[in-house]
């Protein structure tokens, strides 16, 4: 189950970045040259990075519909699999893809990944979510138990009323939150205003974030922000190894800030489609702990470095079983007991097991072992995935090192 398909309550302020359903999930899109208007003469009032970030944080969610085009230039090996030619999320690893997005600006949204002859959709309505693959003609319906649904509804009501309890370390106003976020970014980056531009026919500001540390694979991140609604219209992530074009790009080619028709946001399973119902456990809402506080990392997880050069290491993993799709191997993941240990979570895992007890997940159609072999190469330490933005090293002794750093950095640490 993907992050986009897991329903959870959010505050109205947290939903300002509606395209984050796509942008955070896939982080990039390709806009055809005619739609990338040049920064002609300045037509928008001048703002500082701090003022723009504050405006974004304070923006209310807005309804919209539009077309998003995505391109990944990650330098990964080509994957000659049939699944790559259709509307499969794995296709987002390389090349260009087209998505359609709709949202009412509140709790209902739809994202459709379009293939040449197929579609993969994720639909969310409050605490319910559906995924649909037209190539498999299969629907998965995610819901909460009755008790969790009641808890979700109470949290949603509190969020709408603005009466959610304050989280330790939380900031009371969007302005303070924005300034704190900017200060954190500026600790490791330079933040500047880019040229004003036009995206999908909309006037937009551009915020440019450039890492100070030259040891990261991230060259810069450029975000185009709609001048009227403060909605992100495009995100471009550039690699420090290639300045000719963004490694990841996601952005609107057309967008309308109007409420979509109810029929678009409502989900109905196509006639004849196989439907699988899955009950998702709602995590307990316990006060947030500072991420940098000593002792908050699960045993077996360590973090080295800071900012853009941070490397996270997981130890003691049964990598072979994880790649093979064995749910029991999740017990080897440090911190898994935080979300896997409950009976309802175990039931969720078993929903994806075939009735014949063969041990392989019944939902994914992709051979993950073949994909793993295609994407990684053998090195003395184990297997290495090397891309223009991220490196992953899987060692023979069960460790996984991940960071936006060159592959040589991970190999030296192993």
From TrEMBL:
SUPFAM superfamilies: Prokaryotic lipoproteins and lipoprotein localization factors. Residues 103-240 form the MucB/RseB N-terminal domain. Gene3D superfamilies: Lipoprotein localisation LolA/LolB/LppX (2.50.20.10). Pfam families: MucB_RseB. This is MucB/RseB N-terminal domain-containing protein. It comes from Pengzhenrongella frigida.
């Amino acid at each position: 189950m993907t992050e986009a398909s897991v329903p959870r309550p959010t505050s109205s302020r947290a939903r300002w970045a509606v395209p984050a359903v796509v942008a955070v999930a896939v982080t990039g899109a390709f806009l055809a040259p005619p739609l990338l208007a040049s920064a002609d003469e300045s037509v928008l009032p001048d703002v500082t990075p701090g003022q723009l970030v504050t405006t974004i944080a304070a923006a209310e969610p807005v309804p919209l519909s539009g077309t998003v085009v995505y391109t990944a230039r990650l330098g990964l090996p080509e994957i000659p699999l049939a699944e790559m030619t259709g509307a499969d999320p794995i296709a987002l690893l390389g090349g260009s893809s087209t998505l359609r997005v709709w949202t009412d600006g509140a709790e209902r949204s739809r994202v459709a990944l379009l293939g040449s002859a197929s579609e993969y959709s994720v639909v969310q309505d409050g605490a319910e979510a559906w995924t649909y693959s037209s190539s498999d003609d299969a629907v998965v319906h995610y819901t909460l138990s009755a008790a969790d649904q009641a808890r979700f509804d109470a949290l949603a009501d509190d969020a709408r009323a603005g009466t959610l309890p304050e989280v330790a370390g939380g900031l009371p106003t969007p302005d303070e939150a924005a300034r704190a976020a900017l200060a954190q970014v500026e600790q490791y980056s330079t933040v500047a205003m880019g040229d004003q531009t036009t995206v999908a026919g909309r006037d937009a500001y551009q915020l440019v974030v450039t890492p100070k540390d030259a040891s990261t694979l991230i060259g810069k991140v450029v975000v185009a922000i709609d001048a009227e609604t403060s909605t992100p219209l495009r995100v471009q992530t550039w690699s420090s190894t290639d300045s000719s074009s963004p490694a990841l790009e996601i952005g609107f080619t057309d967008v309308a800030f109007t409420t979509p028709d109810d029929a678009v946001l409502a989900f109905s399973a196509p006639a004849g489609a196989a439907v699988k119902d899955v009950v998702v456990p709602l995590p307990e809402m316990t006060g947030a702990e500072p991420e940098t506080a000593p002792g908050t990392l699960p045993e077996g997880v360590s973090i080295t470095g800071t900012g853009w050069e941070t490397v996270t290491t997981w130890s003691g993993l049964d990598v072979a079983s994880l790649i093979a799709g064995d749910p029991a191997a999740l017990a080897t993941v440090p911190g898994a007991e935080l979300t896997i240990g409950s009976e309802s979570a175990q039931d969720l895992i078993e929903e994806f097991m075939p009735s014949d007890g063969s041990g392989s997940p019944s939902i994914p159609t992709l051979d993950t072992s073949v994909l793993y072999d295609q994407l990684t190469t053998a090195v003395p330490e184990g297997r290495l995935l090397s891309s223009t933005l991220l490196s992953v090293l899987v060692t023979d002794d069960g460790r996984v090192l991940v960071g936006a750093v060159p592959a040589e950095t991970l190999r030296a640490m192993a």
